[in-house]
Design goal:
Layout: E1 5-10, H1 14-19, E2 25-28, E3 40-45, H2 52-63, H3 75-89, E4 102-109, E5 113-114, H4 115-122, E6 138-153, E7 160-163
Parallel strand pairs: 1-3
Antiparallel strand pairs: 1-7, 2-6, 3-4, 4-6, 5-6
């Protein structure tokens, strides 16, 4: 039986941006629990359907001069991924271009860093990859990404929760 680990639910397309290695920080309103720093965690793509407005906002910011404020590291590949998501909105029915309610990767969680300090390191006034500034007070470094192929179905929960890879 596989060993369980803590996991955190992240909405799409951000979960896949982490899995692809383009999103080295998860932004939250609170620092990561100290007991999890240095440990491998699961990154769960939440069941919430993707929203056009959020995808458009992120794509517009990536296309602009201040694209680095998103904290994403590969502008072109991130835009390619968002273009695929955008095409998914053109079909009838749900946008299934990215997995929902699946653990998409695991990562090692680093020491949380206050947004102002992270932004200063990047030479920016603020860093945030979404339109939810109130939820971006802290950047959680994510390293040693291991993408799951295929992603593993999982229910998820708010905050950190226990996930066993064989739970499916």
């Amino acid at each position: 039986m596989a060993e369980s680990m803590h996991a955190i639910t992240v909405w799409q397309p951000w979960a896949t941006l982490i899995a692809e290695g383009f999103k080295p920080f998860e932004f939250r309103g609170w620092p990561a629990p100290p007991r999890l720093i240095g440990h491998r965690i699961g990154i769960h793509a939440g069941a919430r359907t993707m929203r056009r407005s959020e995808v458009a906002d992120l794509a517009n910011r990536l296309g602009g001069d201040d694209w680095r404020s998103t904290g994403l590291t590969d502008r072109a590949k991130s835009l390619d991924l968002l273009e695929r998501v955008w095409r998914g909105f053109e079909t009838r029915g749900p946008n299934n271009s990215l997995p929902l309610a699946h653990v998409v990767c695991t990562a090692v969680l680093g020491q949380s860093i206050r947004n102002a300090e992270l932004a200063a390191k990047l030479g920016l006034p603020w860093a945030n990859d979404s339109d939810r500034d109130e939820d971006s007070n802290w950047g959680w470094p994510l390293t040693e990404i291991r993408r799951l192929e295929p992603p593993t179905p999982a229910r998820g929960a708010q905050g950190f929760w226990r996930w066993t890879p064989s739970d499916g």
